[in-house]
């Protein structure tokens, strides 16, 4: 699935599933009413101008003849048994009736496409998409946090077309499509929507809904559908962190709390917040990464590892700092947090 990189304009693709303001039944009834009204208008026009018509059979034009002539005219059958003979009748047929006939046919074709063909094409497209999505990233919510997460996911190597956005606002999905993502309109707490998004085969689900209650329900639903997928949830209130973790989230981020810490720290510091932002962004001068231990590092102390700077070791739920010399000896199953330079900027 080839798409343009973020930031470049591209033609907005049709949404996979967009709920209409009206049900298919309502749309169909409205269009039937419009067609009946237009046919009645054509019938009225012919009836008013019936003196310009001739019945080739008996020479008399009755109301039933007008109804019959209206039907064969609109359907373009044209048996030729009733014909316009006066100049006025021919002009009326050309200027008034022919446009109405074309408009009625456009309604027929548009309805057939929208209610039958388009839905079939959308269903087929969704089936193909679900088969192609493997190890993709699902982002629930495309507000400021969701958009930033999607942008960073691409910057960190997630292929274009492997980021799927779930959101209840069509305008958010239009913006996501412009950035090259797949959009799915719906409620992220719904099992059906998550299944349509291919949660069974997803690599990770990022929940950025802006509401902690919706986040908890989405975490529970996602974990029910896929016990192994990695779930990262954004939380607003600190008191809800424990609840969301118990619901099954693997990682929890509290943007408002982190932002508050950085703002308070910036009262007395000038560069700390800037350096933290640098660490977190994929295009920063330095990056904070997590990795497994390499065989040649086992038995060494954190300070002895290089060329990057290892700042923390995670071991069996414990967090070990680089200053803890006695405990900072690397073991086989450790996970390392290290700071590395962003070599992609060396030539910039």
From TrEMBL:
One GO cellular component term: plasma membrane
GO biological process: potassium ion transport
Ranges for domain RCK N-terminal: 134-253
Keyword Repressor set for record: no
Keyword hit for Membrane: yes
A Pfam short name: Ion_trans_2
InterPro entries with a match to the protein in the record: K_chnl_dom, NAD(P)-bd_dom_sf, RCK_C, RCK_N, Trk_Ktr_HKT_K-transport
Transmembrane segments: 28-48, 102-121
Key words, A-Z: Ion channel, Ion transport, Membrane, Transmembrane, Transmembrane helix, Transport
GO-annotated molecular function: monoatomic cation transmembrane transporter activity
Ranges where the RCK C-terminal domain occurs: 276-348
Localization (cell): Cell membrane
Topology with respect to the bilayer: Multi-pass membrane protein
Protein name (Swiss-Prot/TrEMBL): Voltage-gated potassium channel
Organism: Paraperlucidibaca baekdonensis
């Amino acid at each position: 699935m080839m798409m343009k990189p973020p930031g470049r304009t591209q033609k907005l693709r049709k949404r996979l599933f967009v709920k209409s303001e009206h049900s298919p039944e309502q749309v169909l009834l409205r269009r039937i009413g419009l067609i009946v009204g237009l046919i009645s208008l054509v019938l009225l026009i012919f009836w008013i101008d019936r003196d310009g018509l001739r019945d080739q059979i008996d020479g008399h034009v009755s109301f039933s003849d007008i109804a019959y002539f209206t039907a064969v005219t609109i359907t373009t059958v044209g048996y030729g048994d009733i014909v316009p003979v006066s100049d006025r009748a021919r002009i009326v047929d050309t200027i008034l009736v022919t446009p109405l006939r074309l408009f009625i046919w456009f309604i027929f074709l548009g309805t057939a496409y929208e209610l039958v063909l388009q839905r079939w094409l959308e269903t087929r497209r969704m089936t193909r998409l679900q088969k192609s999505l493997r190890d993709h990233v699902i982002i629930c919510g495309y507000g400021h946090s969701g958009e930033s997460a999607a942008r960073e996911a691409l910057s960190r190597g997630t292929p274009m077309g492997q980021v799927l956005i779930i959101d209840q606002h069509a305008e958010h999905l239009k913006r996501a499509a412009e950035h090259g993502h797949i959009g799915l309109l719906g409620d992220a707490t719904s099992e059906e929507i998550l299944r349509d998004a291919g949660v069974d085969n997803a690599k990770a689900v990022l929940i950025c809904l802006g509401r902690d209650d919706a986040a908890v329900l989405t975490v529970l639903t996602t974990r029910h559908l896929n016990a192994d997928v990695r779930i990262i949830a954004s939380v607003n209130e600190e008191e809800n962190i424990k609840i969301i973790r118990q619901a099954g989230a693997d990682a929890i981020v509290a943007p408002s709390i982190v932002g508050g810490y950085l703002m308070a720290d910036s009262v007395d510091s000038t560069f700390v917040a800037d350096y933290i932002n640098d660490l977190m962004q994929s295009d920063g001068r330095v990056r904070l990464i997590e990795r497994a231990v390499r065989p040649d590092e086992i038995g060494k102390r954190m300070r002895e590892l290089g060329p990057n700077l290892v700042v923390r070791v995670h071991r069996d739920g414990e967090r070990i700092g680089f200053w803890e010399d006695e405990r900072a000896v690397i073991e086989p199953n450790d996970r390392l947090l290290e700071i590395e330079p962003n070599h992609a900027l060396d030539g910039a």
